[in-house]
Design brief:
- Helix 1 links the parallel strand 1 and strand 2.
- The protein starts with a strand and ends with a strand.
- It has one domain: 4-Layer Sandwich (Purple Acid Phosphatase, chain A, domain 2), CATH 3.60.21.10.
- Strands 4-3-2-1-10-11 form a six-stranded mixed beta sheet, with no helix packed on it. It has a five-stranded mixed beta sheet with strand order 5-6-7-9-8, with helices on one face.
- By secondary structure, it is of the alpha/beta class.
- It has eight helices and eleven strands.
Length: about 240
Amino acid sequence: MKDIIYCIADAHLGIGEEEEERKKERNLIAFLDKVKKERADLIIAGDLFDFYFEYNSVIPRKYFDILAKLKEIIRAGVGVWFVPGNHDFWVGPFFEKDIGVRIFRKSMKFKFFNKKIFLAHGDGLGRFDLGHLLLQLLLRQPLNIFLFSLLHPNLAYALGRWVSKMSRQKSSNRNFILKGHPLKNFARNMWEKGYDTVILGHIHYPHIEKKNGKVFAIIGDWIDNFSYIRISKNGISLHYFKN
């Protein structure tokens, strides 16, 4: 890893109207240019796409520019890591072999300037949710993935976007700042296990708190906030991108 790492999450590409999506895409491409210019690395903590399913011989046209940009910055020397979210868990060989993104299915655990860091998308963490667990088992079973792959891509993506829209939830600011929020409890547990920093996505509300040398950060989103986390030798910081 390089001396600077940027983290983004929850762009949910494909969620909005055409004009909104163009704006989001322009901002995201400009941000990726910034990462390349600064010779930094990038971690995408899930839900880059509102729905993504990987076929053997089909590339989603709607995401082509972003996929091409990721390949461009990787060729320029940027390391890109991807921790899939609950909307784009089905990334696979195309992402790794053709684009060059390194995939970590559940979480990333790494040391950076002697700080032990835990990073994940965040869905399902900090609480036992039987419904969420059953849904994960249903959607991520190899047999079900294979059966879904038999659908025509146009039908599959229409169905996938409909399911994503029905399942999407965003925590409000007021609910998130409550001390008993499951993700806050999860961060404290990880601190007790020896991690210095916990970085999560999923909750679209950007947030960072520091206590006794420990850091808990929520990256935010690229729908309303265009927020990101910067990791360097100077520490962890939360920023907002303006193109």
